[in-house]
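Annotated sample (chain length 141).
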Amino acid sequence: MTSWIPIARVDDIPVLGSRCVQREHGLDVAVFRNAQDEVFALLDRCPHKGGPLSQGIVFGTSVACPLHNWTIGLDSGCAKAPDEGCTPRFAVKVEDGVVHLDAQELSTHATDLTRPLAGPARRDLSPLPLAVLSPLPLGEG
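Output written by the structure step:
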């Protein structure tokens, strides 16, 4: 049986906006509300470069990632063509104006995913060797 946790009132989530739910482990969960008062929950991480979807623009049943404008379906978590990739979605229940999330999913779903590090990718994090520089010849003059 699913154990639902009350998160917020629907009215606490701005229309065409979102709120974040912090978890003990893993990235936050973004809870979105569209113009029809439908509520959706996704991992707050774009499948493209890890942008915070909670800061994106909600339209219809989609959100535009604030980093590169990828369109992500709120109902599926998947990028719209021609882009590809998905972010994990979370079960949502709205009852008497209160938004609930599944306790089991919050504690276990997608807890291993992280945000990419900014800057050039480098797998080996050991210090880079210092280059030996020769003095440049000075012009005569």
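Annotation: The mean pLDDT is 89.
Annotation: DSSP finds one helix and ten strands in the chain.
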